[in-house]
Design a protein that fits this description.
Blueprint: H1 2-10, H2 14-40, H3 53-77, H4 81-111, H5 123-154, H6 164-190
Helix pairs in contact: 2-5, 2-6, 3-4, 3-6, 4-5, 5-6
Length: 191
């Protein structure tokens, strides 16, 4: 009986395994996109682009959200459910703030008469839009997950102290945060 219990402790939870497979897939997708960006950069008509200030502010916001995610996970492990709910809510709100700042950044570019897609656009601008939008979609998935966890944590009928959901969501969130850091540094260096 003890041998079976020991084997089960060594196994990775199926949700965590699925997360790591997803992270690997997302990494490959963004590696492919940034590699394509580097290759296309050799084109004669490639335009240089200054990163909008809102993107830098959104970087600070996403770093703050990593801290609140960590605090949510810590509060859950310590059974501080009020703090856990607060940190989940703050993380979701910071995620939304990040997305809003991304929209503000792209709006600032269009106000400078920079066409991001279509006639008169440049591939460099379209790449920025595509990559940042894909990142935003992945981040929105995390925001939804945190919102669902927040709603569930407020339900008095559900008293689950299973740490897997917050562990999976935290790992995913930190990954998406690090991915954004990579992307903004990539675009800063490659401008």
């Amino acid at each position: 009986m003890q041998a079976v219990s020991e084997q089960q402790r060594k196994k990775i939870h199926p949700h965590k395994f699925t997360l790591w497979v997803a992270i690997g897939s997302i990494l490959m997708m963004f590696a492919g996109l940034t590699s394509a960006y580097i290759v296309k950069r050799a084109q004669a008509n490639w335009a240089l682009l200054e990163i909008p200030k809102a993107f830098w502010i959104s970087t600070v916001v996403i770093l703050a959200s990593s801290l609140t995610t960590y605090l949510a996970q810590k509060a859950f492990k310590e059974r501080q459910m009020l703090k856990y709910r607060q940190m989940l809510g703050i993380t979701a709100l910071l995620g939304l703030a990040f997305l809003i700042l991304q929209i503000v950044g792209f709006t600032a570019l269009t106000k400078q008469d920079i066409k991001l897609v279509g006639a008169g656009s440049n591939a460099s601008f379209s790449f920025l839009l595509a990559i940042a939008s894909l990142h935003g979609a992945h981040l929105l998935g995390g925001v939804i997950a945190f919102f669902v966890m927040y709603v569930r944590s407020r339900n008095a009928k559900i008293r689950s102290y299973n740490p897997v959901p917050i562990e999976v969501a935290s790992t995913y969130w930190h990954f998406v945060d690090l991915l954004w850091i990579y992307l903004i540094l990539f675009f800063s260096v490659m401008k």
